[in-house]
Amino acid sequence: MELRQPWTERPRRLLAIAVALVAAIALLALYLRMADVRGTELCKRAYAAARTTADSALVDVQAPGAATSRLDAAYNVSCGELRMRGHLR
Question: Is the pTM value of this prediction over 0.85?
Answer without folding.
Answer: no
